[in-house]
Specification:
Strand content: under 5%
Number of strands: 4
Order of helices and strands: HHHHHEHHHEHHHHEEHHH
Number of helices: 15
Length: 261
Amino acid sequence: MKLDQELICKIQNIAKVSGGYLTIDLYNLNRKDLPSWKTLKARLDGIEFNELIKKCDSLTQEEFLKINYRIKAISNMKLLGLEFGEISKTLYDSQNFVPNSSYITKNYGWEDIAKVANVRLTNGFLSEDELVKQLKETIKELGYVPTNDEYRTLNLKPTRSSLETMKLSWSVAMRKAGYKPYGQAVKVKDKICAEHNCYRQFSANDESEIYCESCYKLIRQKLVKQLKTYDKNALESICQKLIYTSSSQKSILSIFYGNIK
């Protein structure tokens, strides 16, 4: 089977029927006369799903949400601006809006969206909670727990001076954010789990580890279930790779999902 224009049009139509984007489950649910994803992948020389979606000029769920959440974020800010005049992240999140302020900050920039929505942001932080929340998100995005001096050198937000103005020491601020600061000099720094909604701090067994043990356990359970959908050749290929590679997180995940950072 070739990825010709006819097949591309059919896949694009499946995306439209599915609501504007495609996942493997949505493809299998709405494929009609097309083969299942497992069969289609084999016939298209093992093409990855995201690569197929890109070639068909369609959207993944993540891309679809990013576009639509931007529209929602602007609308949410405009509503708050009309009601309160000025808005802050704390005020925004108190309304339980989707997307939340963390998603907006990470994907579009909080100030940039506020500018598009033509709303005024409050000057500075209104409370200690906002400072702590931003610190939590900053450390999460950084991916590891820095030392006190390193954080100051990196010029991250909230700045150390902002914390000090609120009379928050580094140790207290970190603990309030859910992280454990170092009590002494360290050679290997703790990491923050790479799972989107997980903020756990953990000591990695090797540099390639990116998930905490709890999240990696859930991932392994999903992989075990995923194996049931593979044919004999795919299972044989995976077994061979497992034999010739290490059992590290990076090796296991790369076998199933391709190269990871």
